[in-house]
Design brief:
Helices cover 32% and strands 30% of the residues. The chain is α+β, with helices and mostly antiparallel strands and 160 residues long.
Length: 160
């Protein structure tokens, strides 16, 4: 049975600090339930893995946000306006996810390594990884926009 991998306060603190320091935008944890995004949006995922023979769980960190918020995050990070989707937005959102995963890792299993981010962008898509089970979800507010962070754990039967 998957367990909470990181203390909820650590998840909130890490995301808020990455946004404050690296993005220079305020992101605050919200107790509101997540509502699926409509229109164009982006999902970025980084996996955090240990040795194959380890008894410690592998996990993932994913971030989902609207295309508009992704462009605003990229613009704030690069200190210039971004007016359309480009490889810069894809890279920036992947890197933000990577920074969050890297900072969460020290609250979970510090010896694991990070994957290269996977970034999906578009509309009417459902990003699924059948071998992962979501163990933690947190909604954040950034200005008028919402985004969510999900921590998933590799299901036990997939690991062995």
């Amino acid at each position: 049975m998957p367990v909470e991998l990181a203390p909820p306060d650590a998840v909130k603190w890490v995301v808020e600090q990455v946004f404050k320091v690296m993005v220079r935008l305020e992101a605050k944890a919200s107790s509101e339930p997540w509502q699926p995004l409509t229109g164009k949006h982006v999902t970025s995922l980084v996996t955090v893995s240990g040795p194959v023979d380890s008894d410690q769980p592998n996990f993932s960190v994913s971030v989902e946000m609207s295309e508009d918020l992704a462009m605003r995050v990229t613009g704030a990070t690069l200190k210039r306006p971004i007016t359309g989707w480009s490889h810069m937005v894809e890279d920036a959102i992947g890197e933000i996810t990577n920074m969050i995963a890297g900072n969460l890792k020290k609250h979970m299993i510090a010896t694991h390594v990070l994957s290269i981010p996977v970034v999906a962008h578009g509309s009417d898509f459902d990003f699924q990884m059948p071998s992962l089970q979501a163990t933690q979800e947190q909604v954040f507010i950034c200005g008028a926009d919402r985004f969510r962070l999900v921590v998933g754990q590799v299901k036990n039967e997939e690991r062995r």
